[in-house]
Amino acid sequence: MPNDIRVLLLGGTGRTGGRVLARLLERGVEVRAIVRSARRLEPGTANDTRLTAVEADPLSLPRDELLELVRGCDAVVSCLGHNTDLGGIFGPPRDLVARMTRRACGAVAVLRPAEPVKFVLMSSVSVNRPDRLDTRRGAIERAAVALLRGLVPPAKDNQDAADFLCSEIGQADRFVRWVAVRPDTLVEGDGSGYALHEGLVSSLARPDKTSMANVARFMCELVTDPRAWDEWAGRMPVIVDAAVSV
Ligand SMILES: NC(=O)c1ccc[n+]([C@@H]2O[C@H](COP(=O)([O-])OP(=O)(O)OC[C@H]3O[C@@H](n4cnc5c(N)ncnc54)[C@H](OP(=O)(O)O)[C@@H]3O)[C@@H](O)[C@H]2O)c1
After folding, report:
1. Verdict on whether the full-model pTM lies above 0.90
2. Mean pLDDT value across the chain
3. Ligand 1 centre distance from Cα of residue 97 (Å)
4. Is the pLDDT of residue 63 over 90?
5. Could you give the number of structural domains in the chain?
6. What pLDDT does 136 receive?
7. What is the pLDDT of residue 3?
8. Using 50, 70 and 90 to split pLDDT, how confident is the model at 131?
9. Of 31, 29, 12, nearest in space to 20 by CA
10. Hey, which of 122, 211, 240 would you mutate to test ligand 1's pocket, going by the most ligand atoms within 8 Å of its Cβ?
11. Ligand 1, atom 40: nearest CA belongs to which residue?
12. In angstroms, rounded to a whole number, what is the distance separating the alpha carbons of residues 220 and 194?
């Protein structure tokens, strides 16, 4: 079990982020979590001695404080997402995920770590890979997704965050390496097994299911298993539930 890995977790009070937090702690990882309210942490994790929870709005956390939280971390994991009420979907901050991705990567760049820091982003199958690499998505579906982005701010936010990683961090950054994990429709369930794909496998009209437990498990693998990291770094894997464990 890794006992010398340190992670900054964003969105650790969320449905998937809470599961990521539990899995990381189970694996002996030291976690720093920026949360708006520590009361929203699962009771089983809130008192874990390996967890440091900082109560703050991550977007307005002063830069120096963010730097101190990022300093010494091997990875930053973001499970941020807009709350699903009207205010969360259409109100500010419309750029929650993208802006926090920029902030966290910017903090890493300021710190100039000797080894690149891993940035693991929870993304979505609604997010396209650049250069039309998702060949499964034809013109009609691309138009539907573009419309979705125009109408629903979180969809644009998720695309902007991934675009930032692909285009501005890219593949050769000295300080940040990244993976954007793309689940399909999130469901409950024990996450007994999952399949990973380079690109999209289902259409938006006939979506697959991805249990949050599986997303959490894979995000933790990326942080703790160098082979998983080497396989997926700089890529945007699609994760869906599978009958057979991987
Ligand atoms: N729903 C799906 O089927 C689906 C499929 C694929 C991908 N995704 C993506 O997966 C990601 C995570 O989904 P989820 O359902 O696990 O998320 P979730 O349960 O809604 O959790 C969202 C997290 O973001 C935080 N957050 C929300 N608004 C914030 C704000 N203004 N400032 C700071 N923190 C804020 C929440 O904090 P609080 O606890 O304080 O509210 C919570 O920790 C999202 O980006 C979503 O788009 C969703």
Report:
1. yes
2. 94
3. 9
4. yes
5. 1
6. 81
7. 56
8. confident
9. 12
10. 122
11. 36
12. 14
Q: How far is the CA of 106 from the centre of ligand 1 (A)?
A: 22
Q: pLDDT class for 55, splitting at 50, 70, 90?
A: very high
In a domain, 138, yes or no: yes
> 36: domain range?
6-241
Contacts of 44 (CB under 8 A, 6+ apart): 22
Task: Report yes or no on 1 lying in a domain.
Answer: no
Answer whether residue 246 shows pLDDT above 90: no
| Residue 105 within a domain | yes
**Residue for token digits 């030291």?**
30
Does residue 122 sit within a domain?
A: yes
- Domain CATH number, residue 82: 3.40.50.720
Q: Which of 9-13, 19-23, 151-155, 234-238 has the lowest mean pLDDT?
A: 151-155
Query: How many Å lie between the centroid of ligand 1 and the Cα of residue 77?
Result: 13
Pocket of ligand 1 (CB under 6 A): 11, 13-17, 36-37, 40, 57-58, 79-83, 88, 93, 96-97, 122, 124, 154, 158, 183, 185-186
Residue bearing tokens 């097994």:
193
Q: How far is the CA of 96 from the centre of ligand 1 (A)?
A: 10
Q: What is the pLDDT of residue 118?
A: 98
- Compute, in angstroms, the gap from residue 140 CA to the centroid of ligand 1: 28
Q: How many residues does the chain have?
A: 246
In sequence order, the β-bridge partners of residue 197 are: 238
User: Is the Cβ–Cβ distance between 105 and 180 less than 8 Å?
Assistant: no
